[in-house]
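Quick one, probably user error.
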């Protein structure tokens, strides 16, 4: 038994859910979250607020948790990879963790 956790863009949730359903993976937990990757730290401009240097706001994301048998891990990861990309894949499309 493995836990597949994916952090994706909110606008790709319906596509990812449909891809998982098509792959016969129907039991998932979906939660809203916020965050940013290292790329934003490198490209974002620091802001000064009340004398403190702060980074811009966190970005909205969606977290999917899928507990599945070992034989379905590859299927779940492939379905997420195919459906969560914008075009051929862009910075910020998300992350997948298998634990």
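Nope, works fine. Designed sequence:
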């Amino acid at each position: 038994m493995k836990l597949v956790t994916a952090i994706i863009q909110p606008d790709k949730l319906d596509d990812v859910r449909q891809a998982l359903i098509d792959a016969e993976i129907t039991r998932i937990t979906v939660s809203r979250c916020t965050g940013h990757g290292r790329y934003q730290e490198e490209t974002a401009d620091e802001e000064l607020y009340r004398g403190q240097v702060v980074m811009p706001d966190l970005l909205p994301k969606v977290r999917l948790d899928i507990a599945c048998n070992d034989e379905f891990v590859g299927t779940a990861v492939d379905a997420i990879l195919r459906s969560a990309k914008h075009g051929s894949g862009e910075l910020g499309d998300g992350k997948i963790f298998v634990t």
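The CA atoms of residues 20 and 83 lie 9 Å apart.
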